[in-house]
Amino acid sequence: MADYGDLLDAATRAVGAACALCRQVQGNMGQMRAILKDDRSPVTIADFGAQALVGHILRERLGDPVHMVGEETSAFLRNPENGTALAATLVAVQEVWPEAGETGLLDAIDVGAGDTDHEGFWTLDPIDGTKGFLRGGQYAVSLAYIERGQVVVAAMGCPNLSPRFDDPFDRPHRHGCLYSAIRGQGTHEVPADQPLAHPVKLLRARREEGQPLTLCTSVEEAHSSQERTAEVMARVGRVGEPAKLDSQAKYAVVARGQADAYLRIPTKAEYAEYIWDHAAGALIAMEAGCAVTDIDGKPLDFSAGRRLTGNRGILAGMVREHGLIQGAIRGLGI
Asked: What's the pTM?
């Protein structure tokens, strides 16, 4: 069995480095768009660069083999037609990993080209919240270790998320937040730009009696059924203004008590969520005292491969609020 402390140390270092790269890329979006003549080029560079740094640091700290299921492979950058993108990614990575060369960069990206056929493996979303990143809003670098179908270690960097609840989500914070968790040991927080700072245990803000329920929702409405969500929350009642932000940062916002619940109802009956979109956030929320299930109340099953094929949607929240929303879903027959 792996030493979870060593795994978390490596994960925190890797996510912190990836956050540094992402902040640097996001700060130079205009220049990158001009060079690559593509409006989406900054997130492309950040995606590949972040995955390369995570792969490199995990191997450096833990040795080979590192089994990781990431969202990217190096195929795009290996295509000679995308040489400009490769060069831009290498420049960005070298800001954090100065010794990187093209071969090392491409090989590090492909650490994430693994599979789930192992007793323990990592899963990574190098940029969760693509449109949030491009908008200058919220996004997350999400890394988790899954062992025998359970998430046991998680590190999630939210480079633009303020620790202050009264700061708007569309105003990037200069330090950001990085959340980490080991199963059974609680959730901890450090500034995203200081990953090796002494971690502070996350204490969820208390909810005042009678306070309207705040739901975390995506800025991008296509990610969840808006009509069904409205029906559920109308049945729950006493619902306040939603907390709107992109990415798994929603799990952190619920975990720390800034919002009461996160609900994701599939827009298509056959849709199954990707594991890297929820693994890190789910553990961080659970270790802060939240219940995290699908919309049928079933625990999330990370043993089925790259997707949560045994689950339908997502519901995360403190036990009472989770129960209220799950009861409304059941009552409506959704």
From this structure: 0.95
